[in-house]
Amino acid sequence: MPHTQPDRSCQLSLFWDEAETAYRFSDRHPMDPVRLSLTMRLVESFGLATAPGVTVTAAPPAGDSTLALVHRPDYLAAVRRAAADPALVDEEHGLGTEDNPVFPEIHSASALIAGQSVAAAEAVWRGGARHAVNFAGGLHHAMPERASGFCVYNDPALAIARLLELGAERVAYVDVDVHHGDGVQRAFWNDPRVLTVSLHEHPSTLFPQTGWATETGGPEAPGLAANLPLPAGTSDAGWLRAFHALVPELLAAFKPQVIVSQHGADTHLEDPLAHLLVTVDAQREVARSLHELAHQHCEGRWVALGGGGYAVVDVVPRSWTHLVAIAAGRPIEPTTETPEDWRAEVYRRTRQGAPLRMTDGADAGYRDFAEHGYDPADRLDQAILAARRAVFPQHGLLP
């Protein structure tokens, strides 16, 4: 059987609109929307889209009043101008650059993705669903005044801003993309209602060159930005060790009412744009852990988003299908074979062979930091300790 015993306590709203695949910068850009289509096809092939307790919903695009919760009016106007003139180069607003080429649907597709994440936040907060997933979202680099790092509108920040608007007093944002969640951190840098936690490759070796352990929040929110930059080459055991050394204790101290998480799949060893050595199995383990933490601290209120990921056939669809399955309370056994109809769809769409199983064959084990102590000569343990020392005392925790 592909699924383990279903968890009947999980209700999932999966936000998806095929029109989100119009978020396509160019034919040669690494953010190929085929990764989204192939993820949804794999979700459907496993029967998750029609499973009891799962609702697939397409929300409307975010309007200007919603986008303005994070983005400046002059930037919104600049994106609309770019949509009308795909040859436009507007470096002030980060548009028409190598990372963020202009395309005709740059506003409409970006607003649609943002609308799904905002609606996901609303569904979870208002009780329409215990969990919500928008794997097309997670565009965490966009700034109030400019596009950055393949991201036009910052849907995670917009989802959090909407939660605050609805009355949430404590929102935890956990970002495990290989790149620092800089746009979300900036949006809530000085907001004591929001804890942002980011695990990412070290800024000395990867865009956006931010996310140092010393970045800990503004004067009104001390210790509410937590960053753990990981050495290039960190693999499953180290990545999981770092996650569990930082995230569970911070969430327990912060006591969030809802968790928003970003699950960029670009930590994977096959990703062409970064330098970590993580497997789908470890990515699945982190999704499972965040699911448990949401039930432990937030009565299950969990909004899970996608993010980066540029191994668009081998990695992204499997990683995010595991995420959807976990959120649906129907986790897929890692050794399960990928469905034949999905493999045929992969070949039809990409002329590439599809992965045969939902695992990379890793065991996703790690040595617990608190239980086994740390090695002062180990670069990873140095990074973990630096992150804990930077923020733990401000939460009443021992580093």
UniProtKB/TrEMBL annotation:
Name of protein: Acetoin utilization protein AcuC
GO molecular function, one term: histone deacetylase activity
Gene source species: Kitasatospora viridis
Biological pathway: Ketone degradation; acetoin degradation
Protein family membership: Belongs to the histone deacetylase family.
Domain of life: Bacteria
Chain ranges of the Histone deacetylase domain: 29-325
SUPFAM superfamilies (UniProt xref): Arginase/deacetylase
UniProt keyword terms in alphabetical order: Acetoin catabolism
GO BP terms in the entry: acetoin catabolic process; epigenetic regulation of gene expression
